[in-house]
Amino acid sequence: DARTAFHELKKILTTDLILGLPDDTLQFKIQSDASVDGIGAVLLQITLNGDRSLAYMSKKLTKTQTNWLTIEQECYAIVQAIDKWDKYLRGHEFILETDHEPLVNLPNK
């Protein structure tokens, strides 16, 4: 049943094999995205063996938020992720990755 599958997936995603513990000596990275009805992000750290997932977040958008422009939804995803993981990011430079082209090119304007 769907509930059993969900709990099994949740158990797998939260094991040490998947989620790492934060290491202040490594650089943090956030990957975020928005869709028509929700936002999501992952907090990672860059290691010699590749990116290591530390935490995930997702949030359903309200009816009002679903009417926002795509760029506003994408920015909202970024702000929510930074706010959620502030205790890890504060005082550290971090990489932010988004696939929303207008935001990717924003620093170049």
> What is the fold-level CATH name, i.e. the topology?
Ubiquitin-like (UB roll)
Structural class: alpha+beta
| Number of DSSP-assigned strands | 4
Low-confidence stretches: none
- Tell me the strand percentage band: 25-35%
Question: What is the first-to-last residue Cα distance?
Answer: 50 Å
**Which class in CATH terms?**
Alpha Beta
Computed CA radius of gyration, to the nearest angstrom: 15 Å
Largest sheet strand order: 3-2-1-4
Average pLDDT taken over every residue: 89
What is the correct CATH architecture? Roll
SSE order: HEEEHHHEH
Number of helices: 5
Shape: flat
Tell me roughly what share of residues is in helical segments: 25-40%
| Main β-sheet description | 4 strands, mixed
Structure characterization notes:
The protein has 109 residues and is an alpha+beta fold. It has one domain (19-108): Ubiquitin-like (UB roll) (Roll). The protein contains 5 helices and 4 strands. The chain has a 4-stranded mixed sheet. Strand 1 and strand 2 form a beta hairpin. The longest helix is centred in the C-terminal third of the chain and has 15 residues, at 70-84. The radius of gyration is 15 Å and the shape is flat. It starts with a helix and ends in a 5-residue tail after the last helix. One of its GO terms (molecular function) is catalytic activity. This is Reverse transcriptase/retrotransposon-derived protein RNase H-like domain-containing protein. Keywords: Multifunctional enzyme. Residues 2-95 form the Reverse transcriptase/retrotransposon-derived protein RNase H-like domain.
